[in-house]
Specification:
The complex is a heterotrimer.
Chain A (H helix, E strand, L loop, with lengths): L3 H22 L1 H32 L18 H9 L2 H32 L5 H13 L3 H11 L4 E2 L2 E2 L8 H24 L5 H8 L3 H12 L1 H17 L2 H5 L11 H11 L4 H21 L1 H13 L2
Helix pairs in contact in A: 2-13, 3-13, 4-7, 4-10, 4-12, 5-7, 7-10, 7-14, 8-9, 10-14, 12-13
Chain B lengths: L3 E10 L2 E11 L4 E5 L6 H9 L6 E6 L2 E2 L10 E4 L11 H11 L4 H14 L15 H13 L5 E5 L7 H18 L2 E6 L2 H7 L2 E6 L2 E6 L1 H6 L4 H6 L6 E7 L3 E4 L3 E3 L18 E6 L4 E3 L13 E10 L4 E7 L20 E5 L10 E6 L5 E4 L5 E4 L21
Parallel strand pairs in B: 3-8, 3-9, 6-7, 7-8
Antiparallel strand pairs in B: 1-2, 1-4, 4-5, 9-10, 11-12, 11-14, 12-13, 14-20, 15-19, 16-17, 16-19, 17-18, 20-21
Chain C lengths: L1 H17 L2 H31 L1 E3 L7 E4 L3 H8 L20 H28 L5 H13 L2 H11 L8 H6 L11 H29 L4 H8 L4 H29 L3 H5 L9 H10 L3 H33 L1
Antiparallel strand pairs in C: 1-2
Helix pairs in contact in C: 2-13, 4-8, 4-10, 4-12, 5-8, 8-10, 10-13, 12-13
Classes of the chains: A mainly alpha, B alpha+beta, C mainly alpha.
């Protein structure tokens, strides 16, 4: 009590020695400590940029310069501003519609193909799957020019001119289908091939056709797989940048997607940091919800798709 | 009418012939077992009858209609599967009524039939359960109920008991038999277990390498096997076999001579022209006796000495593996061809018999139960070396095809 | 009405039912094949064809006469650098050439990302309460839109608002405005790339970890191996093939890097290969752009081959 400073120092030295002793004598606990340090480290590094967005968004504009790590003031109305003054919701709506279209196309085509790859023994299966892998390996830019020609109505085949789809949802949905279909098929192939043999035979003996068995038995049973594929495709399209950026002129009425909703702030209103942050947070919201609700599906889908060689 | 007939049914996968020109007639109400080692083509045969696989060649008809190219749903059949194959996303009621619902039956009729089927397989009160909540035996009952509810012309069963534990298997065996007799529906039953086939079937078809080796009632397959394959496949433990040569008055093997006299005469398949022929002699363990035991057969063969190797008591009898000692007869010229398998002889003895391992004993064969097969083709030449044989042998009937 | 449809359709269904396995398989993949032919195979062929033509900056169509591999030759020899907004490859100023920038970013990002991913996988593979919460949090960076990934770090390194830039500048790590310095921007792009891809490779490695037979660890424990030895002697060799697969996907994706650049520092400070293609495309030089795109694909192909050889060697060594 009389001399708190020295006691403190002594205590500190004591603690350090204790910690070292502890680490050496209890290796199991050392590993546990490392584990928690690692876990906390990863989570805080992961979350820090999100936190930064949040404090930027809620800090009133006047106090933004050289701000610290805690918000100076609280201004939640910024989220309303983003929606009211800039049609961010319109961009997000466009993104969701286009992602939805892509999911439907991919699931319809991918279900048939995934079923064939997973459950039908046909010749040339291996090479065809490799071909699928090849598509996802080429950079998006190698497809850009012909797709741009085709979808902007400048490609002529004989006397026919392809329809001008530039500035419509299709100019993005088609390229996204091409990008997402291989992964959809890999995920569904894995799921279909895990359904026990015999169920299909049983259904056929009981009175369905082969296609009937696919729709009555196989697809209902692989519902988790179909959901997984749908979620992965949806997220994939929602986060996509390249074709979203190239295939519209950036006007929300022309089906410009979230990419432009965010970039517009950067390119036109350079000083509106808090609005940029708020818009980003709102843009994250749909996928964040999806990730929280469907974490297991996403993990399963990414690994099953990724590990298929 | 639920007769099934296969005519020259042939199935080829790439360069493997799974079923080779099979012709088989299954009568209405009959319980026929297809039995054979794995990969012999028995399941492919069943799949061709069901329509899950289409034959490369030949025809299949059910109840008199040619259904060779019809899909499964257009054949009047129902099937029970080895892995049971219940739809996990449907409850028991929906599983059983699946086929009826597909065929747009009236709701009331579906209910009535499902109730009835559930009662037959003793599943009352479980209709709203999910298959996952049921035990293995109960699941298979649902599978059977799903098959009988449609009242088909033919039941097809693909090793339905293979995934059940031993005790349940024996129990379900009797139940399926009882059910089949009650419903009087033609049944084709595939199994690799010869004992299952023997106990359940009206007739069994033994298949090897895509070819029917013999198709006959179980006891006939046992007592009068058409060839060496059937002889060794049917019966557990397996039949003992020795290589031998037909001599003038006897069949000579390494350890003993089986006299063909005094009854040798024209009734025998083994005629004079068989002299010098290489044969395989087969005798079942229960047809080998210890000399001087109480139940010595009426017409014993010459005895020979053997040393007990291993004793395996199984309760109602004891299996003794014995090694025959050098025979009284001079060593046969082709003795070197004998494999290890023929070195040992399995004898079934009464459990009360007091013999010990390494003991020297004298054994005899029951000459009435000795089978002789042609060494080259494997076909049976005779069953029993005594008395007038019945007129032509079953071995030459139309169902029997050579093993090569 | 329904009956007519049924009658019209049933012979078709009957035909389908009678198809053999081969044809049935082909029928089911036909829609996929059709769609991909139009949307993927045709564009690939077309891009390649365009890359063999001349640029036509003044005609009605931006594609000129056939020239064979002249575009490729010009790009590789550096003759094309005068018409490009930044060189494809240049010895004098490597940090401003697209190839060096892209390969550099990829290399550093893959090495750091894989090591961190391995650590994250080991941690998240352990059983602990709230593991699924931790997994959910950790997936987030991968799932959010690319443009927002870029935007986040753009705001984080904005010198006028971020309190991060000044201390880092004082330490000599960054310059006063990192968003306009090529070197700093590259570091920033690498940081974003690692941040968003660690979860992805960690998930793949986790799937590999989950497939390791637990009893091997019991054997090791009985033999007296420490945790670190267990990791080095059991986990690492068994998980190596999966790590390589993850690295292949990581590398392919990093070589195509574009979105986070466009959304944060801009293509002029960090000129990646895709940036170069897009800029060239915008200058109406379609043929040249196509040639660079194909070259990029070839380079990625070469890198993937290196991995596959490694993978084979690893698998063979285990046998």
């Amino acid at each position: 009590m009389s001399n708190p400073v020295t006691t403190d120092a002594a205590e500190k030295r004591g603690i350090v020695r204790q910690v070292v002793d502890f680490l050496v004598s209890e290796p199991a606990d050392t590993y546990r400590l490392l584990f928690y340090v690692g876990l906390v480290g990863f989570i805080s590094i992961t979350l820090f940029p999100f936190y930064w967005l949040f404090i930027l968004a809620v800090t009133p504009r006047g106090q933004l310069r050289n701000m610290g790590l805690v918000p100076e003031g609280f201004n939640p109305s910024v989220f309303l501003t983003v929606l009211q003054e800039y049609p961010l919701h319109h961009y997000i709506f466009n993104s969701i519609v286009i992602a939805g279209i892509t999911v439907v196309i991919c699931l319809v085509i991918g279900s048939l193909a995934g079923y064939a790859f997973g459950r039908v023994e046909f010749r040339g299966k291996g090479p065809l799957m490799l071909l699928l892998l090849l598509i996802s390996y080429f950079p998006g830019i190698t497809y850009l020019i012909p797709l741009f020609e085709m979808l902007s109505g400048t490609l002529t085949i004989g006397v026919f001119v392809t329809p001008d789809l530039y500035n419509t949802p299709w100019s993005m949905a088609f390229p996204f289908t091409m990008l997402s279909l291989p992964l959809t098929i890999f995920i569904l192939t894995t799921f279909y091939s895990q359904i026990p043999d015999g169920l299909e035979d049983a259904a056929r003996v009981e009175g369905t056709t082969r296609l009937g068995a696919l729709f009555r038995v196989i697809i209902p049973l692989s519902a988790p797989g179909v959901a997984t594929a749908a979620i992965i495709v949806f997220i994939g399209v929602y986060r996509e940048f390249f074709f979203s950026f190239m295939m519209t002129d950036g006007q929300p009425d022309n089906w410009a997607v979230l990419v432009y909703g965010i970039l517009n702030f950067q390119q036109q209103h350079t000083e509106l940091w808090n609005l940029m942050a708020a818009a980003s947070l709102i843009g994250i919201l749909p996928v964040a919800l999806l990730v929280i609700l469907a974490q297991k599906h996403i993990v399963r889908g990414l690994t099953s798709g990724g590990l298929k060689e | 009418m639920g007769n099934v007939s296969l005519c020259d049914a042939f199935k080829r996968y790439d360069d493997i012939v799974a079923v080779n020109e099979m012709t088989l007639e299954i009568e209405d109400g009959e319980f026929l077992c297809l039995v054979g080692p794995s990969g012999c083509g028995k399941s492919t045969t069943l799949e061709m009858i069901s329509g899950l696989t289409l034959p490369s060649d030949g025809t299949i008809s059910i109840a008199g209609d040619d259904v060779t190219d019809d899909p499964p749903k257009d054949r009047d059949i129902a099937m029970v599967f080895q892995n049971i194959a219940l739809f996990p996303h449907m409850d028991v009621y929906d599983n059983i009524s699946f086929g009826l619902r597909l065929r747009d039956f009236e709701r009331a009729e579906i209910d009535r039939r499902v109730e009835q089927a559930a009662t037959i397989v003793k599943l009352d009160g479980m209709l709203d359960r999910s298959p996952k909540e049921l035990s293995g035996g109960q699941q298979q009952r649902v599978g059977i109920a799903r098959a009988i509810v449609r009242e088909p012309a033919v039941f097809l069963m693909d090793e339905p008991l293979a995934n059940l534990d031993a005790k349940l298997r024996v129990h379900m065996r009797t139940e399926i038999q009882r059910l089949q007799k009650e419903l009087d529906i033609t049944t084709v039953y595939v199994t690799h277990d010869q004992e299952e086939a023997m106990t359940m079937a009206d007739r069994i078809a033994i298949i090897d390498q895509g070819v029917i080796q013999q198709c006959a009632p179980p006891l006939e397959c046992y007592t009068r096997p058409a060839n060496e394959f059937v002889a060794t496949f049917i019966g557990s433990p397996s039949m003992n076999r020795f290589d031998g040569v037909v001599r003038d008055e006897s069949i000579e093997t390494e350890h003993l001579e089986l006299a063909l006299k005094p009854e040798r005469g024209r009734e025998y398949e083994l005629g004079d022209e068989d002299g010098g022929r290489d044969v395989s002699v087969g005798v079942r363990p229960e047809n080998v006796y210890l000399v001087s035991s109480d139940d010595e057969p009426a017409s014993p063969s010459a005895s020979f000495a053997a040393v007990v190797d291993v004793l395996e008591p199984v309760g109602d009898q004891t299996y003794a593996y014995v090694r025959p000692q050098s025979a009284s007869a001079p060593p046969s010229t082709d003795g070197s061809l004998m494999g290890d398998a023929t070195e040992q002889l399995l004898v079934s003895v009464d459990p009360d018999t007091s013999i010990g391992e390494d003991e020297r004993i004298e054994v005899v064969f029951d000459r009435e139960k000795v089978h002789v097969f042609d060494d080259a083709s494997g076909d049976a030449l005779t069953h029993g070396l005594v008395g007038p044989l019945p007129t032509d042998d079953a071995a030459s009937s139309s169902e029997e095809v050579q093993g090569d | 009405m329904m009956r007519t449809i049924r009658r019209a359709v049933s012979p078709v269904l009957y035909r389908i039912e009678r198809l053999d396995e081969d044809r049935y398989g082909y029928l089911l993949i036909a829609p996929m094949f059709l769609v991909l032919s139009v949307l993927a195979f045709y564009p690939l062929a077309r891009t390649f064809w365009v890359s063999l033509r001349a640029d036509d900056l003044y005609g009605t169509e931006p594609i000129g006469a056939f020239e064979g591999i002249r575009n490729y030759w010009m790009i590789l020899s550096g003759d094309a650098n005068v018409v490009l907004s930044y060189p494809f490859f240049s010895l004098e100023n490597p940090l401003s050439s697209a190839l060096v920038v892209t390969v550099g970013i990829t290399l550093i990002s893959v090495v750091i990302g894989t090591v961190l991913g391995l650590g994250m996988a080991v941690i998240l593979n352990k059983e602990f309460r709230a593991r699924s919460v931790a997994r959910t949090i950790v997936i987030l960076p991968w799932a959010i839109p690319i443009v927002i990934q870029g935007m986040m770090f753009y705001l984080l390194f904005q010198p006028s608002i971020s309190s991060l830039v000044e201390p880092l500048h004082d330490l000599g790590v960054l310059s006063a405005n990192p968003l306009v310095s090529s070197r700093d921007s590259m570091l920033m792009i690498i940081l974003i790339d690692v941040w968003r891809k660690v979860p992805f490779i960690a998930l793949i490695i986790m799937a590999g970890l989950a497939s390791i037979d637990r009893s091997l660890y019991d054997v090791a424990k009985v033999a007296g191996a420490s945790k670190w030895q267990q990791f080095r002697l059991i986990t690492l060799p068994l998980v190596k093939p999966v790590v390589l697969i993850g690295m292949i996907f990581y590398t392919i994706s990093s070589m195509k890097i574009y979105g986070i650049v466009e959304a944060s520092t801009g293509c002029s400070t960090v000129p990646t290969l895709t940036c170069l293609v897009v800029d060239t495309f915008r200058m109406q030089r379609w043929a040249m752009a196509s040639a660079i795109a194909f070259l990029t694909a070839l380079i990625i192909g070469g890198i993937v081959m290196v991995y596959l050889v490694q993978f084979r060697a690893g698998v063979n060594a285990d046998e």
